[in-house]
Fold:
Amino acid sequence: MFDQNHPLITILYIVASVLFIAGLKMMNRATTARSGNLVSGVGMFLAIVATCLLKGMSFHWILIGAVIGSAIGAVTSYAVKMTAMPEMVGLFNGFGGLASMLVAWAEFHKWREAGWQVYHGLLGAGAPDSPLFTASAIAFTAVVGAVTFSGSMIAFLKLAEKMPGRPILFKGQKIVNALIIVGVIGTSVIVCRDPSGDWAYPAFYAVMAIGLILGVTSVIPIGGADMPVVISLLNSYSGIAAAAAGFIILNNGLIVAGSLVGASGIILTQIMCKAMNRSLANVLFSGFGSVQSGGGTQVQGEVKALSIEDAYYVLEAAQSVVIVPGYGMAVAQAQHVVRELGELLEKNGAEVKYCIHPVAGRMPGHMNVLLAEANVPYEQLVEPGDVNPTIETVDVAIVIGANDVVNPAAREDKTSPLWGMPIVNVDSARTCIVLKRSMRAGFAGVENPLFFKENTRMLFGDAKASISALVAEFKD
Ligand code: NAP
Structure:
């Protein structure tokens, strides 16, 4: 058993931190992403070993927790379908926040039971002799952890379609939210000013309760179209809560891991904001009632359906093809046949690119993961900014189960909830073939004028079935 400052513990935490950073770096490229995951996992294993070696640790509780957690992880990885991954990610973010909140609660309880002097001794050599520092870390962790937990639960319910994806707004929402924020700050101040006083305990419970309410009230007014930003922001919050918990128990491994998650979550949030043409400040405060619902885009023109055979003739004559995958490709699990079709088109002399919109699918990187799984060459993956400037020269744009990310209303209709979001301008390609099962709307729930454009043809049916049929035509 070693002290927190023992060289072995310090070395193990440093090696673990280096492995976290190396693993993150490796996740930058599709080719090294899987190994990066493994490298980070080894880092986490070393961090757990270091923690178990700490003086005063009760092994059996950690072991019981690890066995239960691993069993749940193993079962869910088999039981949860790939399409349900986004809500699972939301749920996991939430549990990260809940864990941090529980650490804050347990530490506050320990402190109150033992008294500051004894508790300070338990924190180990080098612990700051400042009750204010520890109390602030406890209150901060409790608030951020609580907001992350309840906010993630709402995001989970919205993504799993167990509650309406549209913004839930009510009268006086801004005032209610302002009061909640004042309440959480006020109760945190009571905890920090006199952590040993009679009022500190009820105030601490109030901090957690108000934090939980704040998580709910800040996510319910955000509509489905903004969910990618919410998910990455909550991911960042879960990291910030973990890092703050590290400052309570003075654990360097937790501080480093939490800071990495917090920082990468914020970077991802900014990427998502850019993809949706929203500023971070706007997204942060859109939770306070600024999202408008509705948007009744008026559509003109008629829908022109296409048969598999006709689609084959169009594609057979194409010299350049851009494939735009969306959530429907994930539902249909069509990525493998899509890659096969891409190869056949190339063999036929066409230049093929896969254009991935940053918010396509239901989680950041959703389409990249699926296409990498199907071994689509990384060099063929491009972004809307690479394709849009020359899209007029593209012979055929094939939209596979995408809807919102190709909706021209984002460009043309100021009343649309999608207004301002950069899209893939497939409506400007010479021909656009849209694969979907019906005329139903996408995640944002709005009409798509693309389906009614002169150069658009609808290939109705399950994406995998349609693409498989096209592949069969090419092979014939
Ligand atoms: P989308 O707008 O949700 O549209 C998906 C389309 O796929 C639907 O219109 C559906 O039409 C079709 N589809 C479903 N199953 C299919 C199947 N088996 N075969 C063929 N088509 C099928 O998808 P998107 O264009 O990818 O846009 C993503 C949306 O999700 C955006 O609004 C984004 O803001 C939101 N979102 C993204 C994230 C993220 O991080 N990426 C997170 C949360 C939310 P049918 O029912 O007619 O087939």
In short: The first strand starts at residue 320 and ends at 325. The beta strands are 320-325, 351-355, 381-382, 396-400, 431-436, 456-460. Residues 20 and 454 are 51 Å apart (CA to CA).
